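hey m, so remember when u said the tokens were messed up on ur end? i reran from scratch. heres the input so u can diff it against urs
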Amino acid sequence: MKSSRSKSQEREEPDLPTELEAAMAADCTPQGGEILLEGRQVEDANWVDGKAGLLRLEGCVLHRVRLAGSEFGSVTWKDVRLVGCDLANVKAHRIHLLRVEMVDCRLAGFAARDAEWRDVLVRNSDVRFAQLQGGVFRRCEFDRSDLGEADLREADLTSAVLRGCRLGRADLRQARLRGTDLRQSALEEMLVGVSDLDGTIVDAAQAMVLARLMGLEIR
């Protein structure tokens, strides 16, 4: 079945090199407080509880990389794919992502004060308790992921897709949800205001759930 989304709304996939050079341990060590990787494949690296002013990745693929508990001043990723990586409780002042895919990843407790994500896919991942208040998510897709109790207040999710996700206790109050596709997601106990849902795409069963959340009695 063809997508109902226009070309301008379709997510762009990462533009990755056909050949990637394996990263060495020294490549993953902060130099002058920065980690800069381009055109590299990183496997089974351990950056747990690390600290760096900048983590910049471009044209990279990461498999089973552990970043849990790390702190960064700025995170900038362009054309990056992460598979089976652990980013739980990562904290960053600024995180800008462009054409990034995160598959089978842990992002529980992930926090950023300034988040701007464009053309990002998060699939089959744990995003519970993430702190992304006020973030901007352009042409982003969350697929079969758990966003329970995530803080997305005042986030711009215009035309984003949240497909087959769990949104229990996720806070979307004052978020921009026009054109946001929530179909197939579990919305029970989601925190959202009536006016926030203007233009949001849901199915008939979800409309009944949202009506109950709003305190409506359906007879």
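this time it looks ok to me. The chain has a mean pLDDT of 92. if urs says something different then somethings off w ur setup not the seq
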